[in-house]
Write a structure and sequence with these properties.
The protein is of the alpha+beta class and about 280 residues long. The chain has 2 domains: about 35-145, Immunoglobulin-like (Sandwich), CATH 2.60.40.10; about 150-230, Immunoglobulin-like (Sandwich). About 25% of the residues lie in helices and about 40% in strands. The protein is built from 3 helices and 18 strands. It has helices at about 5-30, 90-95, 235-275, and strands at about 35, 40-45, 50-55, 55-60, 65-75, 80-85, 95-100, 110, 120-130, 135-140, 145-150, 150-155, 160-170, 175-180, 185-190, 200-205, 210-220, 220-230. The strands form 5 sheets. Strands 2, 5, 6, 9, 10 and 11 form a 6-stranded mixed β-sheet that branches. Strands 15-14-17-18 form a 4-stranded antiparallel β-sheet, with no helix packed on it. It is elongated and about 120 Å long. The N and C termini lie far apart (about 130 Å). About 15% of the residues are buried. It binds 2-acetamido-2-deoxy-beta-D-glucopyranose (5 copies). One 2-acetamido-2-deoxy-beta-D-glucopyranose binds next to loops. This is Ig-like domain-containing protein.
Amino acid sequence: MLFTSSSCGLILKKPVWLSLIMLFFRLQGSTGQITVTQTPSVVVSELNQNVTLNCSFNHSPDHRVTRVILYWYVNGPEGSDVNIYPHGSEEYKERLIVLDKEETPRNMSIILLGVTWKDCKKYQCMLSYDKAGEPERKRGQGILLLLHDSMVFDLAPRSVSSLLCSVKVSPDPTFRLTVLEDGVEVCSTQNDTQAPHAITLSLHVPLHSGRKYECQLNRSSELILSRTYFNQPQSLPEPIFLYIAILLVPFIILIIILTLYLVGDRKGYRGRGKK
Ligand SMILES: *[C@@H]1O[C@H](CO)[C@@H](O)[C@H](O)[C@H]1NC(C)=O
Ligand SMILES: *[C@@H]1O[C@H](CO)[C@@H](O)[C@H](O)[C@H]1NC(C)=O
Ligand SMILES: *[C@@H]1O[C@H](CO)[C@@H](O)[C@H](O)[C@H]1NC(C)=O
Ligand SMILES: *[C@@H]1O[C@H](CO)[C@@H](O)[C@H](O)[C@H]1NC(C)=O
Ligand SMILES: *[C@@H]1O[C@H](CO)[C@@H](O)[C@H](O)[C@H]1NC(C)=O
């Protein structure tokens, strides 16, 4: 009956067509791709911190994945791959924590301890496994590690009228340092120099009393760190004046009372004189 009515037929066509596609995707999902993903693709950390580098392995029971072996690489000179796990150098053996050392690891992420400038590299995980008995290997797209030191934001050396904001960062043209005065951007800098380890971003701005200053380090549109500087208006003598004023109050009241008394007294004499 439904199919005899053309209008109903038209309405029905779409859901049938849609549900077929949905069914297709559901089937795809269950036997979908085996993937190795690394997110986020860039990690920004402060110097000397412990950094987690993510790697996740997605597969379903249908893939019959066995004999999983985890490897991690960094990009070496001239695009070469340097293994840091499991055959890493002594340095990496001490500083690299593998979260799961089981024969079939579940968590493929690693933690790099006490990161320094020379750790600013791209870290790629690779998984070697058997898929239904056939050997296969897959790599993640890699995570780029970028670092920054702490930010200094204070009066410029030998100056009382200018501020200096500076911070050391890994060479990356998307780092941007900005100084804001009362929330309004006054100046900003980027540096696309390709230095081997680190570069310094710095800004000088004139200081005006009573204004609030903020220095921000951003990367792309993300705020990495910020510091504020609040310059108090020249108010040091004010409390002293206040104390003097408070001390003067009883004295002034005394003078007023005395004056009133004397004036009143003189009026009294005059009155008596007239009589
Ligand atoms: C980094 O990890 C080590 C060892 O787990 C720990 O002793 C240290 O406190 C950590 N450092 C930071 C900055 O979290
Ligand atoms: C690492 O990956 C897990 C799972 O995908 C996610 O929950 C976590 O937020 C990631 N860690 C970082 C530092 O992005
Ligand atoms: C692996 O461990 C790290 C650190 O504990 C955690 O951030 C991450 O979310 C874990 N990944 C998965 C897939 O559970
Ligand atoms: C960029 O950084 C380098 C190294 O710190 C420095 O020599 C250069 O002057 C900087 N360039 C700009 C435009 O600030
Ligand atoms: C830095 O990033 C934060 C967060 O996205 C944003 O609110 C702020 O305006 C950015 N600062 C600059 C100077 O672009």
